[in-house]
């Protein structure tokens, strides 16, 4: 018999309408006493569950990360009275042919009792609330992009080709022209003359793109409706930004928030999103390798018979991966930085997209170092691309000399 590590624990099988709980108690070397009960998911039932766990002296409880939200109400009520562990459902599957709710709860309790469960990362309440805000902001920004695409589609249906001429239909010039098209009182030449700055260089193309359009009253209604929605989305995003900035003033987050912005490619929005996903305390991730593995930015291992095969990255935390990828693109524009130099070196070998993912991995390791040391990012002068080209040329010259060729400089 395997010796137990936790003497009083509970396994919870979570469902939408009810939870099944198995409590195991007993000495480390003894056969445990098992009790199984069923509770509803309303607050009074969950409070009764918490009282039962306390009465039985349970110190730990485990449940699967079932669905996107089923586990959260249970976790929120039990967090104060027992140490709750959230397990990846793929890691704790029961044996085939034994799939019932009581069996699942008993299996979870058995694994927890013997220390065979790897806990998922659950940040503190303040970080979870910040995460809700940053993810909501990302969703609204995505909806904003989708609504703009809908407007563009209606314009294409009406033979308005502004999108082929302007880089962005919703730039200053584009908005003025769109308003004029909706008003329907201006000629194509008058609409084109609304162009500002560089867009004025394209006036002939603009005239051609809006001339003889077929914008109907129905299509004007659709566009006006979409524009009102876009205005509403902009207001909501700004409200979220203000709330996120207010939370960044919290002493527990303010220092980390400013430290992250010292890293090339990371500004206010990205720094807040990163903190919302990993928190400011790196105790949960003792090493950068563990943080990278959890995020899904490092490749998985696939080695057999001494042969290592190329594999994709894990799914990991898609919200964090998206933020780091965007920050990596921004970091490539920081001239003279080590991150830009590393990107150019990787791009030559594995292409743009893989180089950006690898640069995001480098950024994450840098973030871990900055938050662990609580010091801003600093770097020595990087080896620039020109320096690397000189080194490469000198290497080729040496190779030519070894082959018996004479080399000389051409002025």
UniProtKB/TrEMBL annotation:
Residues in Transposase IS116/IS110/IS902 C-terminal domain copies: 258-344
GO molecular function, one term: transposase activity
Residue ranges of domain Transposase IS110-like N-terminal in the record: 10-157
Pfam family, one: Transposase_20
Keywords: Coiled coil
Keyword Coiled coil applies: yes
One of the protein's GO biological processes: DNA transposition
Coiled coil (UniProt feature): 223-250
Family matches, as InterPro entries: Transp_IS110-like_N, Transpos_IS110, Transposase_20
Keyword match Plastid: no
NCBIfam families documented for this protein: transpos_IS110
Protein name: IS110 family transposase
